[in-house]
Amino acid sequence: xxxxxxxxxxxxxxxxxxxxxxxxxxxxxxxxxxxxxxxxxxxxxxxxxxxxxxxxxxxxxxxxxxxxxxxxxxxxxxxxxxxxxxxxxxxxxxxxxxxxxxxxxxxxxxxxxxxxxxxxxxxxxxxxxxxxxxxxxxxxxxxxxxxxxxxxxxxxxxxxxxxxxxxxxxxxxxxxxxxxxxxxxxxxxxxxxxxxxxxxxxxxxxxxxxxxxxxxxxxxxxxxxxxxxxxxxxxxxxxxxxxxxxxxxxxxxxxxxxxxxxxxxxxxxxxxxxxxxxxxxxxxxxxxxxxxxxxxxxxxxxxxxxxxxxxxxxxxxxxxxxxxxxxxxxxxxxxxxxxxx
Length: 341
Prior knowledge:
By secondary structure, this protein is α/β, with parallel strands linked by helices. It has helices at 9-19, 34-39, 57-65, 78-88, 113-132, 151-160, 180-195, 214-225, 246-259, 283-296, 311-318, 323-330, 335-338; strands at 48-53, 92-96, 138-143, 165-169, 200-203, 233-235, 269-272, 301-302.
């Protein structure tokens, strides 16, 4: 599924988060967060945004010439990210490169691998350079399509340039772990990241895979996470793709069963709740989230904006637990994930 033009903002938010693409924008003159600000509980701002994105002029231009879907109206550089963080009271962000969009099989557009790799390198370099402007606040993560022949080379290159982690978006890259070749490519790239002690943030739910569900979550855990004992990984969107419907709940429940607090993997597997709570989250979804988060361990949950305007207010307004539970998430610094003391 790809983003097209949407009729209403709530649909735009939901689908945009599923694909992890650009942040949607409200119609001009409409403040969609006003009502949420008025009724949101007083919850401390999170220290860390563990799921932010950068986007260069070149990426936006590529979207235009390739007819790829995008909701971005302007680039997202370091200054834009800092302004958003300051507005929400956030001190630090993991900035996930969107270079994978330069090689997104989900778009149905391909060029030569040489030309594609040149675009991917430029986008990763853009993320590194923008984060270098604010080194105390922005932490750069490279990204690639793990199926590409140059993917391991790019991980090596970016590790040499002191990028701090790897972002993978399996839906954009159309990675189907039911297919041996895709699974092998994915394992090879993540092994390389683990070799460099680079943590991974991975969007693993692939809606293009028929009947994707908990068994696919389990395959990722057993084939990728369990064998790599040096791997530190955060599964984006609670192992889902935004929102918290039945599919996402089932996948998260399986993840809890496999990597919960009483398992050997608890110290190296994290999740982020980017785009899980939105302006239109049904009460039942929020209630189920409140039941499952403590089972996973609130200290292993990172908050993320996914560059959605008003994301923090959405989360605060729909938060299903008490302020103490929120504090456990909001106080996370992210150091354990990225190897800081």
